[in-house]
C-alpha cells in the first residue's frame, strides 16, 4: 500500500507519520515551494499522487494571508480528489479538517477556509476527519 502524506512537518502530520511509518512506507509530499498559481507546477504536483493508494491531507495554513495559502486550504483538497476520481483511480483520500467548521459563530479565516474546503469536497468520495483533540506525550 502506497501512502502519501501532505503536511508532514506540522503537529498532526508528524504525529501520523510517527505512528504509521514503522509499518508502512510513506511518501511525504512537500507543498511549501509550490506556486499553485502556476498551472504547470500544479499539474506536476497532482501527477505525483498518481501512484498513491491512500492520500492523507494534513496540509493547511493556520493563518492564510496570500493566494497560495488560500488555495492550499480551500481548493487543493478538491483538486486532489477530482484528479484521481477523473482517472477512475481507487484512492482512499483522507482530508483533515477542523471541528471549528461546525461552530457557526467561528468566523476566523482559518475556519472559513476549512468550511469552503469541505463544501468543495461535498460531492467527492473524500473522508473528512474533524479532530477536536490530538494528544501527544
Could you characterize what this model shows?
- The chain has helices at 11-20, 39-48, 67-86, 109-120; strands at residues 3-6, 26-29, 54-57, 92-98, 127-131.
- By secondary structure, the chain is an alpha/beta fold.
- Strands 2-1-3-4-5 form a 5-stranded parallel β-sheet, sandwiched between helices.
- Helix 3 (67-86) runs parallel beside helix 4 (109-120).
- The relative contact order is 0.17.
- The mean pLDDT is 93.
Rounded to the nearest angstrom, the radius of gyration is 14 Å
Arithmetic mean pLDDT:
93
Pairing-aware structural class of the strands and helices? alpha/beta
Q: What percent of residues are in strands?
A: 15-25%
Spatial strand sequence of the major β-sheet: 2-1-3-4-5
Q: Note the gap between the termini.
A: 28 Å
Count of runs of 4 or more consecutive helical residues: 4
Helix proportion range: 25-40%
Anisotropy-based shape: globular
Report on the biggest sheet.
5 strands, parallel
The total count of strands amounts to: 5
Give helix and strand order, one letter per element, not per position. Answer: EHEHEHEHE
* Spans of at least 5 consecutive residues with low confidence: none
